[in-house]
Amino acid sequence: MMGAKYLTKATNLAKHIISAVVQEGDTVIDATMGNGNDTLYLRKMVGNTGKVIAFDIQEKAIENTKKLLQSFHMADAVELIHDGHENMDLYVFQEVSAVMFNLGYLPKGDHHIVTKPDTTIIAIEKALSLLKRNGIITIAVYHGHEEGMIEKDQVLAYATTLDQNQFHVLRLDFINQKNNPPFLLVIEKK
To answer: How far does the signal peptide extend, from start to end residue (predicted)?
Structure first.
């Protein structure tokens, strides 16, 4: 049996959508740095003239991301910030074309350290204010754990309140998969 080629996982769908929006020279945000895979992807997208600003509250995430970027010789044009994504407005002062979120916990990290609904919603609000017209926010929602279920419900409740005259909000689900697979929320600023 062959594996899926296009609809593989929420993070790959996010990257595909982001690739239609981000151009070389853009400024973008990785709101949940994790192990640096999205940071690296965004760095490749913005090229040498763009900028990636990445956030995480865990020192381990920053170390992992720095190593990954260095292994690809792409540590330049990336700012790694050891702070919560809810404080992004303290570090980002220009419009951005895209913001990526992967909610939940650091893969291969401490599963007790997770994103929280209150700070995530604050971060989404701040990301929306920084987003340029036709910019995109992707939010991979991992809800296969108790805290993730709570965060999912609150993030979805928030997203449904966004003014349809200002934003398009799309939810992409793998509806035939078991064990609460992650889904993707995409917000476009009109």
So the answer is: none
